[in-house]
Each structure stands twice: as structure tokens, then as C-alpha cells.
Known about the structure:
Blueprint: H1 2-8, H2 31-92, E1 96-102, E2 120-124, H3 145-160, H4 174-181, E3 185-190, H5 224-232, E4 239-243, H6 250-256, E5 259-262, E6 283-287, H7 290-300, E7 316-320, H8 321-326, H9 329-343, E8 352-355, H10 357-364, H11 366-369, H12 377-396, H13 398-407, E9 415-421, E10 424-430, H14 437-446, H15 451-472, E11 476-481, H16 495-515, E12 519-524, E13 533-538, H17 544-573, H18 582-593, H19 597-610, H20 614-627, H21 630-643, H22 648-661, H23 664-677, H24 682-694, H25 706-715
Helix pairs in contact: 7-17, 9-17, 10-12, 12-14, 12-15, 12-16, 18-19, 19-20, 20-21, 20-22, 21-22, 22-23, 23-24, 23-25
Amino acid sequence: KRMKGEEEDEDGRPPNVTGSITFTPSAPSSSSSLNQQSAKKKERKTMAFSSSQQISIAVSACTLVLAILFDQIGKRRRRNRLKNDQKKKVKDCGAFVEIVDIPCPPPPEKHVVRKLANLKFVLKDIFEVSGRKDENDSSCGFGSPKWKEFMKEKRENSNSNGNNAGVHRVKNAAIMDMLLKNGASLVGITHMDELAYSIDGQNEHYGTPINPAADKRLPGGSSSGSAVAVASRLRDCDFGIGTDSAGSVRVPAAYCGVYGFRPSHGMVSTKGCQDFAKTFDTVGWFAKGSKTLKDVGDVLLKPADDEKYGIKEPKQFAILTDLMKLADPQGSAAVASALKAFGYDDRYAGKVSKLDLGERLKMLCPSLRTDTSGKTGLELIRDKMHATMGFEIHEALKEFLAFLEKQDGSDQATATATATISNKTTTTTTTTSGLGKFTAQRIENAKKITEQDYENLMKVRGEIREVMDQIMDNGTVLIFPTVPGVAPMREGRSEEEVQAWRMKTFQFLAIASFCGLPQVAIPLRYPDAEGPHSVSLLGGFQTDKMLLECAFRYSAQMQEHFPNYVITEMMKSNPAPKVPGEEEKVNGNKAFAEGKYEDAISWYDKALEKKKLPAYYANRALVYLKMGKMEEVEKDCTEALEMDGKYVKAYLRRAKARMILGSFLEAAMDYEEALRLEPTNREARSEMANMQKHLESGAMDASMPKDDLEIARSFI
Length: 716
């Protein structure tokens, strides 16, 4: 516009210049006029050039701005895609290798109710599954990208040689067909540790699934994905299938806070499952609830060989004291809560003992008795389990390891394997290219076990199994924490800490694995905990269904008592300030135990002067009961119950006093309330039975009104 204006204004001024100017055109022949016109033209050309340069610069600037803008938009889109991927991983906790939808077939008859009807499950990536996206490449991923390459080459070689000509068709594993047949549907294939050779849940190729119960802690392995999926109810799954050779179901169950079961060796079919360590391999499972855990067992477990093994009820319990010493305080609380739950059952009264299993095995097994290493019995079993498994694992993977060496072009090929632990990257040289650092190290160690070593180890194993059969005979159940404590942190641990935890944990796992015994892990929680805890029940060979029944029947009571026992254990390690009157109460208890009832009453009076607590009233009531002062007993127990309406001891003591006073109806109501709070309370049941006999015709108190007698008799 400015250029156009300059061309229209003959005097060379921009059109927007203000002011009034009058001029007279000069004659064209004048030389000064010609010079002026020439100068003006030159000026206009210069201005035109300057304006065109400005336009060019402006266009370039706009182009640059647009380029930067589009680049920023692209970066933002990439960031959003990354965030969405991360959100997706958080959403499914990184549990799945592949999402599948394989429904169960229709029932053979319309009215047939199947055991697992409408339930959904996930499957560890160690089983053959027909219908997977990559079924022409590999039957299972086995936690390793190299395994897929190995299986693909193996099939191609087989087809080129004329064997199994045509496209390879993978069949379902035996357990999958059993689950589908009984009404369950498969909804996902889950991640696992590389070659199943770890109990942490970390996989250097595919990452570490997120533990939904403690996201900064490890999920446990090697059946990590199945445990995570069940804990989070991903894709609404009700249970998950894994494998357990040396703890690969029990550890993730404990870390993620779900039920986990390892069956007796050979009790569940392993057909269609990739071999790992043939005499250790079992198919285990996870569940959110104890009933589902039991129902899956009813479908998968074979019948016991004979009546000796098919025991239906525990006969006695043993606490493993050597493992209790290795566990944290919450582990002791977990065992205490299990004993409390079993203690409610009259059948198990007085049937609990303590057992140092390691020392017992060292004493009874000749091969362990002569050991001079100074290790404990459980440490020796752990080491022998590792060596025995190592030989079997190396045998199972021989062909695969040859494939890895062939890929490197030489039998002595070396490769660098790296792993990131505690935010540090470490490097090592190994002859197993393409494997993670720790997997490669374990395989290298396994190569050192000779066939003669293996034969000797199997003899020792036979001795240990024979002694364990004697210990577990007649329905003994061992109770101990599943693992030493809560799951380790995902990051921040040194290699020494990783190894130390691993070696300690295997002492808890080796018993069932080395002896082929069943074990159920029961989850326990308390408020503001760092992570879930777990208590285990271990039974004799083929007592699988008995253990599942115990978990189903008693686990709710275990959970109910666990928080209180945790508080007790924590107070032992961190004593709280004394409650006012506590010292006087202790003195009163001591006087009562010595039969000095008057002194005991005096001490309890002093305790109540300092602080009125239900325990002080109830303790004083017990002394009055011994002294025969029933009105005082009733009064003190009533005071205690006004403060704590769930104080069972106060109900029992008041009921006793009321019976003696002839208030049968009120006594019966107190016993009823005590039974409502503790349904298996033996004292309340016994006293109710005695009352019923007392109220029979001819046995009633003459002072009791007949109408009250009839009401009490009817109430009972």
C-alpha cells in the first residue's frame, strides 16, 4: 500500500503525511527539474527494493515460525503417545504378553452346572495355547525373545526335513483343556521371568510388571504376570495359572497379596508345559479368594494314590522355629494368627508343637550329619536343591544353549550381557549370548554340575524325603511365613543385597520343592503396611486337598486376628509408654497367681484409681469370683462391658456369677453373646450344656420363679 501511495504522490511523500502543501509544476525543459525527477525515481527504486527485502524477510520468518510450531506439535503428539503407552502399561500393570479371548465350550447338557462356570483366568507364557497370534512362530515365549527364534528355526528345520510337514499347529496344554471344559474362559497370556530362572519378577527383555499391592516393590517371579493380573483383577480374571519349581507361585503370591498353591509333584498334569527342571516342575495357581483356589484344585488335582495320602483333616501342627528366626516380626504375627484360627476348633486343642526342622534333618539324615561346612540344615537343603535343579535345567536347555552358541558363529562365542540393578548398569562376559545377565550367570553355574554330582545329590534327596515322610506322617501340617518379609524394593538394592535376600528366601522355599510336597500361601494384611504378608501351610505328599480345605475354612479367621498380632509384635520390638495402672495390674496378677486374693484386690483397686480400664475391672471380677462374692463379680463385669461391649471374658465371668445367683436367663444371654463373638468358645458351650442339665425337671433352684425357669429353658 505504501509503494502504491508513493507512486500516486508525485512529490514523493507518503499519502498519510499531514499538512497542506502547494506547488507549481516546473517546465519539462528545465535541467534542475529533470535532475529532481531523476533523483525521485532513484529514491523510489531504492524504497521499492527495501520494501521487497522486508517482505522476503517477513515470509522467511513466518516459515520459520510455522516450522517451529509444527515441530512443537509433533513433539507434543509424541509425548502424548508415550504418556498413553505408559498409562496403558500402568492400567494393565505390564502383566500381559498377549490379550486373548478363548471362551469355554458349551456344556454337554443344558442343565449341567460346571465347577468353574463364568470364571475367567490368565495363563503364564510357558504353556502351549492354540489360537495365539504368533502360534506359527512359537508355542510359548518362555520369557525370552531368543526362545522364540529358537523354536521358529526348530520348526523350519523339521519341515524342511519332511517331518511334520506343513504349518505347525500348537495344541492346548492339558490343564487348559481341563479348565475350559469345566466352564472357565482364558482372557490373557502373562509375562514371566526369563526361562523361569528367577523369583524376582524382573525380565531384562520385557520389563518388570507392576505390583498392584506395593507399586515400588517387586512382584515376585517367575509367574509374575499371573500374580499381578489376579491381584488387580485385570480383564476381570478370577484366577491365574503359573508354575512352581522352586517358588515361582509362592513368592509372587506372597509379594502381591493373593492366594497361591503349589501342588505335590505329579498331582497336576504338566503336558504342554515347557520343561524346566523335570523332578521339580509343578503347575500351580493364584486366586483372589480361598473358594476359587479350592475350586480350581478340585478340577486340576488327580486323586491321591491311596487312603494314606488322601488325608482329609490335619492331625497336628508344627511351627518351624528356625524359619521364624529368619522372618520379620510380621512373620511371627502371621504364624500366631494361623494358630489362633486353628485354636478355635476343639479338634486341634493342644495339638501344636515347635520344630527346628533343619536341625532335625541334620540329626536324622546321614549325609547331612557328616557335613562340616557349619551351615544350618535349611541352608544345606537349599544348596543341594540349587545344585540338583541346576543339572536338570541345563539338561532341559541343552539344545537351546547350542542354538545360542551357533548364532555367535563359534562354540566359544562370547557376548556382553548387561543388567540394571539399583540404578547402575553392570557388565559381564558370558558364553550365553542373548540372555539377561543373571540368567546367564545361573546357567554358567549349572554347567559345572556333573552327572556324578547329580547322582550323589539324588541319593541325599532320597534320605531327606524319607525323613520328611516320617515327620509329616498322619496328617502333620507345618506352619511358617511364606517368605522372610515384604517384597524387596524394585530399585536401590546392591548386588550383595539382592543375593543375600535370594539365599534367605530359598530357605523358606526349599522344603516343599526338594521333597515334592504341597504348600498353600495365604495372604494377610494390616493397615498402613509396606506390603502384603503371607503365611504358609505345608502338608505331606498328596495331601493337597486337605491344605486347600484348611485355607478355605480358616483363612478368614487368620486375617481377622493378624492386625492385632502385628501390633503385639511391634510393641515387643518398640515398647510403648506404660499405661497408667499397668504396674499395679501386673502386681495384682502376681498376687492372684499366688492365691493372695485380698492383696490382688488391693492392687486392682490402685490400678483403677489411676485409670478405669475394662481389663482392670474384669481382673478384679475374677478375684471376686474365686472369693465367692458374686454380686461384686456381676457389678465389675457390667462396668467392663459398658466400656467394651466385645469383652468375651467379662461376659463369661458375669454369666458364671449370674448362674450361681440363680439368674439363669441373664446367664444364658451372656453365654449366647459370648458365643456370638467367639462361635467356637469351648467354655461358653460347656457352661450352656451344664445349664441345660441344671434346668431339667427336678434339678432347678427352688428359689427361681417357674415362669423364669420356663423362659430360660426355652431360650437355651
